[in-house]
Amino acid sequence: MLTLKRLTKRYKTGDLALQEVTLDIPQGQVVGLIGPSGAGKSTLIRCINRLVEPTAGTVQLKELNLTSLSQTALRRARRHMGMIFQEYALVERLTVMENVLSGQLGYVSFWRSLLRRFPTPAVQQAFAVLDRVGLLDHVDKRADALSGGQRQRVGIARALLQNPDLLLVDEPTASLDPKTSRQIMRLITEICAERQLAAIINIHDVALAQLFVQRIIGLRQGQVVYDGAPDGLTAEVLTDIYGAEDWSATIRKEPVEEPPVAEEEEPLPEKKLAVAR
């Protein structure tokens, strides 16, 4: 589904961020990308959708060679790659619904998006994805009034409104508390299973990655030094990825039974919605 061949990124400073990374990620697989700061994790994600231009190598999404596309063709191709950011990348003064509908910007004309006149099917789909991420009662709330976990849910809903084949997720839990981090990771992996979406999740929390993803890729100095099952992350492997340390408290030794998930916050009183598009 997604194939990277000898993907390389060298910056103008001479720093080599990625060194001939070769990966094949099938449809529906959720991959955790781990490694120390500066290992190239964010660069890898951004080279896939060409927010950062690779220096060499190829990125192929299904039948499309993304690295050879013109800017116009790339804009169309980006519809199929939903991006979820660490810092949410929401427009603070806009409502939850308006932020989610921005996921349709690759499908509607400039004037319709400027006037916020989205097609009725897109609005209906936005309601559906907001229901799925647990924010249906917050559609008219401004983004700057949300908690961190709620903001990340808006970002997930916005990405889903693109109807993507692939999710690129950059440190989705870095700013969240442990409970909310689990809720967000569970939500992402459940949605990927429901929709048969592939996902690459850049994540610093090794134990959290082990708990939720199907495959771990470890980067060090821009190179893949581990590619395998979460249970394969032994102390020796983690030393290869991060360097020498006592990893005994980091490695998850047995499955954790997850309790039923409650909402982070009590929902606001239900409001009468006025969405005229």
From TrEMBL:
Here the segments flagged for biased composition (Basic and acidic residues) are: 268-277
Boundaries of every ABC transporter domain copy: 2-246
User: What is one term from the GO cellular component aspect held by the record?
Assistant: membrane
Q: Which GO terms describe its molecular function?
A: ABC-type phosphonate transporter activity; ATP binding; ATP hydrolysis activity
Q: Name one Pfam family in it.
A: ABC_tran
Q: Name the keywords, alphabetized.
A: ATP-binding, Cell membrane, Membrane, Nucleotide-binding, Translocase, Transport
What protein am I looking at? Phosphonate ABC transporter ATP-binding protein
Tell me which species this is from: Pelovirga terrestris
